[in-house]
Structure formats: C-alpha cells, structure tokens
From TrEMBL:
Cofactor: heme
Family to which this protein belongs: Belongs to the truncated hemoglobin family. Group II subfamily.
Name under which the protein is recorded: Globin
Pfam families cross-referenced by the UniProt entry: Bac_globin
First and last residue of the signal peptide: none
Domain of life of the native organism: Bacteria
InterPro entries: GlbO/GLB3-like, Globin-like_sf, Globin/Proto, Hemoglobin_trunc
PANTHER family for the chain: TWO-ON-TWO HEMOGLOBIN-3 (PTHR47366:SF1)
One term of GO molecular function: oxygen binding
Amino acid sequence: MKEIKHRNIYDAIGGSDAIDRIVTLFYERVGRHPDLIPIFPDDLTETARKQRLFLTQFFGGPRLYEEDRGHPMLRRRHLPFPITPTRRDAWLHCMEEALLEANIQEPYHTVIIEKLTMTANHMMNTPD
C-alpha cells in the first residue's frame, strides 16, 4: 500500500512558512503593480494578514480565516472593488511570480494557479 505523504496542498508546500513566503513575495509585487495599486490600500499589512489566513484555509490548513473573519464570502467582500479582467490577470501574474520565487514545486504550483484562477474569475465584477 502506497504511503500518503501529504493530505493537502498546505502541508505539501511547507505549511505556514510557505504561505508566509508566498504572501510576502506576492504583496511586494502587488504594491508595485500599476493595475493593482488603485484597488489596494497603501499599507498592505492587514491585507496580507487576511491573505495568509485565507490561503492557509484554502489550501487545506487550519481554518484560520473562518476563525478570524467568518465565512469567506469572497465575491461579496470584493464587490466594492472594480475587478476587471486586466486586474484579474495582473493579480494572477503577481501570484505566479511569487510562487516561482518561493520555489513552489510541481504539481502543487500548477494546482495552486488553477485553484486561484477559478477564484479570480469568480471575483471579476467590472468589464475592462
């Protein structure tokens, strides 16, 4: 019988340390991206904290987001921000670069991008 090494993406990529690396690298990019700057606060500290909680839970780790903020209700929480296809693509590009720099290996890299692409598509609420 084959041994299962990891039960979820969170454990497979290295748990909280990996999430911290990804989020830090991601928001370094978001804070410089001309398409994203208009919809993000100047101080990304709280935004990054919430993202750490969300990604931990989204990738199968502890349910930290729900403990802190309740049900994610992502679309509702993002409705105040004009999320266009261009901004979706910019967000995903920043995440792709963060995953590469954080050295997230296959097959997890691809699975993460696929899951986040579905979520980002759902968040769009404004045409270009």
